[in-house]
Amino acid sequence: TFPSLTGTTDWQAVRQTVNHYSNAGLSDVTSDQIRCYTTTGSQEAPVIQSVAAGSSVSFTSAPAIFHPGPLQFYLAKVPDSQTATTWDGSGNVWFKIYAEPAIISGGQISWASLNKGSVGVTIPKNTPSGDYLLRVEHIALHQASNVGGAQFYISCAQIKVTGGGSGVPGPLVSFPGVYKATDPGIKVNIYSVSWMMC
């Protein structure tokens, strides 16, 4: 799980996830839970954490990441009529701000996030000021050779970007919607050398 932003307590600025006791990943990419891994009616956390545009923000990982696979971060701008504590993040509103590259060496594939107890991202300097949901996603690929085998570990933090710019973020995607269970990189055998040699 990713229960907190560095400097806050668990589930203070991060919405409590379904797996906060079990640590179980989500495998259904068509579920509404692929957005923030929360249950209906329990999406809000009590605090909105201020983060300056151009600065970094980190999630704690509890336990440390122990499955191989990539780490990604998305942002979604909260509509003016709502706040980060009330909005559910639905619609074509999410944009990716970081995707962790794979490391391929000697016929083996790995990711630098493995065994990390915290993971961070820089909020782009030109991100417009305002309330956002910040979504962290780790995709565990150790069983991903079968459809539905990839496991998603997700949290959404409630943040307020300050000192922002005039960027126009995009492309925008929706959760669910952006992924299919058969997508390359979601259905993949990371233990096979042959696909890496293509």
From TrEMBL:
In terms of superkingdom, the source organism counts as Eukaryota
Q: Which residue numbers delimit the Auxiliary Activity family 9 catalytic domain?
A: 10-192
GO terms of molecular function = metal ion binding; monooxygenase activity
Catalyzed reaction equations: [(1->4)-beta-D-glucosyl]n+m + reduced acceptor + O2 = 4-dehydro-beta-D-glucosyl-[(1->4)-beta-D-glucosyl]n-1 + [(1->4)-beta-D-glucosyl]m + acceptor + H2O
> Gene Ontology cellular component?
extracellular region
**GO biological process assignments:** cellulose catabolic process
Q: Does the keyword Metal-binding apply?
A: yes
The protein's location, in the record's own words, is:
Secreted
Q: Does the keyword Metal-binding apply?
A: yes
Q: What is its main location?
A: secreted
Q: What class of enzyme is it?
A: oxidoreductase
Q: Which UniProt keywords apply?
A: Carbohydrate metabolism, Cellulose degradation, Copper, Disulfide bond, Metal-binding, Monooxygenase, Oxidoreductase, Polysaccharide degradation, Secreted, Signal
Name the needed cofactors: Cu(2+)
Q: What is its EC number?
A: 1.14.99.56
Q: Name one Pfam family in it.
A: AA9
Entry's family note: Belongs to the polysaccharide monooxygenase AA9 family.
Q: Cross-referenced PANTHER family, in alphabetical order?
A: ENDO-BETA-1,4-GLUCANASE D (PTHR33353:SF10), PUTATIVE (AFU_ORTHOLOGUE AFUA_1G12560)-RELATED (PTHR33353)
Protein name, UniProt field: lytic cellulose monooxygenase (C4-dehydrogenating)
Q: What is the lineage of its organism?
A: Eukaryota, Fungi, Dikarya, Ascomycota, Pezizomycotina
